[in-house]
Amino acid sequence: MPNAKGTLTKEWSRAIDDAAELGQKYMVCAFLFPDERKTIDDYKRHADLFNKSAEACKAKGIQFAYHNHDFEFKAIDGQMPYDLLLKNTDSKLVKMELDLYWTVFAGKDPVDLFKQSPGRFPLWHLKDMEKSESRAFAEVGTGSIDFVSILKAKKTAGLVHSFVEQDVCKRPPLEAIAISYGNVQKLKI
After folding, report:
1. pLDDT digits (tens, 9 = 90+) for 13-35
2. pTM of the entire structure?
3. How many separate domains does the chain show?
């Protein structure tokens, strides 16, 4: 909701003050709406906005991050928006919350991203992908994403926190989270 209050472009300082009062350590831009990401220039403007937003966060002891989906990995005018965001944002100010599902869905290897930009990925969304043609969401550890290999690179990534997320559940949500939780325990993150 681009016109909502407390966004990067409207009353951001108020949102930061509220987050600081609550003791939050991170503030994450979770999504860019389609109208905000039509061109490479849109991504360049967002990189600048992320840098400015992150500076304001840093002043209050909060780390700014950006959360990906698959659209950042679709080339526009021969350029990869995600690469542009990594290159055009300050690596100390702007970190990435890597959604493993969407990264793999887009055909990218998370470990390659970690090697390309070490230390930029303190936050991960652990989401799995069905071993099916639809590649639907699955409980962590039941799908096709190789979490063991990805986790071996957690130091390179700079991992601090990981979050289990499943956008859509085919079984009751509490049953799905119990399966994911059990499998995450086996991974020993």
Report:
1. 999 999 999 999 999 999 999 99
2. 0.94
3. 1
